Amino acid sequence: MNSDNYTFGKSVGSWHADRAQTVTFVVTDDCNLRCKYCYITHKKSDNKMDFDTAKAFIDRLLTTDEMRYSEAVILEFIGGEPLIEANLIDRIADYFKLRAFELDHDWYWNYRISICTNGVNYSSLEVQRLIKKNLNKMSITISVDGTKEKHDMQRIFPDGSGSFDKINDNIDLWLRQFRGATKVTFASDDLPLLYDSVLSLWNRGIKEVNANVVFENVWKKGDDKVLEEQLKNLADYVIDNKLYDKGYHCSFFDETIGYPYDEEDMDKTYCGAGKMIALSPNGNIYPCIRYYGYSLNNHEEWSVGDIKNGIDMEKVRPFVLSTNRIQSDSECLNCDIATGCGFCQGFNYDEAPVPTNFYRAKYICNMHKARVRANNYFFSKLYNVHGIERENNKINKKSFYFLLSDDYITYCCHENQNQNDNEMSDSVILEGLNYAQENFMMPIFVHGKSGKTLRTKEEYIGYDILHIVPIKYYNLAQKQEFRRILPVYDMENVWNEKIFIDNIILNVREDEIKKLNEAIDELIKFSNRININITELDRHFNEEEYRQQMEMISDKIIKIWENEGRFKEINILTDILFLDKHDNCQAGENTFVLSPLGKIYTCCADFSNIEDGFIGEVTEGIIKEYGSYLYGIENNNLCRICDAYQCRDCVYINKKNTKEYNVSPSFQCRKSHIERVVSLDLKSKFKNCSIIPSKNTLEIKENDYLDPISKFFKNNSEFAGYYKYQV
What we know:
Helix content: 25-40%
Strand order of the largest sheet: 18-17-16-15-14-13-12-19-20-21-22
Structural class: alpha/beta
Distance between the termini: 49 Å
Shape: elongated
Number of strands: 22
Largest sheet: 11 strands, mixed
């Protein structure tokens, strides 16, 4: 699939990107507007920067190392309304250029002037003189909120009148001088105008719309649904009019948002406070303008220095150390859609119960969720309609399996032998899709063995659905224009269906293991990845036969690599080469099942075997306590100390044999450790294989056991009591 044919949802490149340091001059506390959502709550008409203050700051900036961190610099001028002081900005810019030239400073060649203005006096002689002198080294953004109704609702003069007409008169002049990019802010009362406002800006020639919602505690119940609906309407407009590759942008749409934090994310922060510096009119230096007193309401301002004494690095240390890991609570850190959830560190500081940087206000939590749902809708529809894949498409943490009929195809180690003939109705499917969307789960349709469930619906177009289908209906699934198809083989049709498919499932009953290598020998010609399910595993499992089959398959993988340079994946042997934690079935933790009649189960085995095993209904969600804490690795004392990370650890097999969901039977553990032993040998034979990390997190080591309970006994020998456990 093509992932390069869209620009909508991608970030817009900025000058020197991460290589430029931002230095902010607050040239005035005054403003000629009184925007209702403005975070500057203490405006003053008599407080502006003195030129000598700016000179002293520039001298310090250019002649000491304490504030120089990058090869380029952005000189940002802000207010209040900065262009009230256009002449002062002109003098400051001239002085910076002169001193940088005199000092032969790198920044003389690598600087940029940046101004965000409300546009009221944009056409004045003073402003135009400033622009004419610096045009090729300057970027100016005028904040336009969209339609006249939306703009005048928030961006008003001190007398309460709207500013749209005044600013609109200056837009054409601005667009002749600069790229059409604007900043738009939305609050609770103007959300219903979002769609019309973004379209009006695009139609005005402003293609880059940097939009956000306010961080303050202004949101009412239902606002998130309004935001989601407005953004979905915008997504429909973009796709239906094929604007996704025409250079239009709205920052509410971003391909990188809506995923859990990884370890790298934990040690980053969303906000740039401390990585920039800001000078106030009084000569104090701040980590950003939001720590300057004119925007604080609850705590004292936080200065990190001044023009006379320079930077106090002791006061900078908290900003260097501020990361998501300690700025966020467990809810945020464990959120399934954490990435892209924005915050302002200075606002968080002001909202904290005590004055600290290590706090995170969460007023926009529901708004972020709405934004992620709308993004998922856009990228799903883009894929389903135009076949264009989301480039930054990580795997969803959670999955929701739709068993479309009682005769659903076996897709895990539980073999479906259900004899009923129920089929999921259209209404249950749509309710299930809505439930999956609301809970950020990937919908997976498990089709029936009869093929009757393979049908396309227009209503599914906004959902990214994986279809698990019997191999004999693969061509029919393609005709139905399913985008994601995972076909399932069983041993009976391995030699009958020869279709080139990248990724497949192979179901193997325990009594068919002796033919496994032979089956893989056939399928590996047509597939790059084979997911083997050994179904209905029990205590009579023939370990030696399984080991022999694994060794032969391992030799086959090596031979193909050595002779053809192609890396073939067999889940139970090669997955462990890439994993640093358990990748088990995750039933009851991150995967759930929807039955044909609309009931929710932890897994398909519970649905097929436990009459009252459902834990909720699709219309209400999960409503029954099912011992959810038992399903996580952290509450499984065997898995917790085991590094056979490829193990699927079927919770139903656990319950059936040990009477506990979180205690594996010995034969399931031993099977996984046989695979682990063979994988260790497999890894040692790979040479110059760039696909396998040369220094991955997991180091597969020799063990003297197949059942990890022996390791547990070794560490906790007193727990064995009178039992002589055979390991």
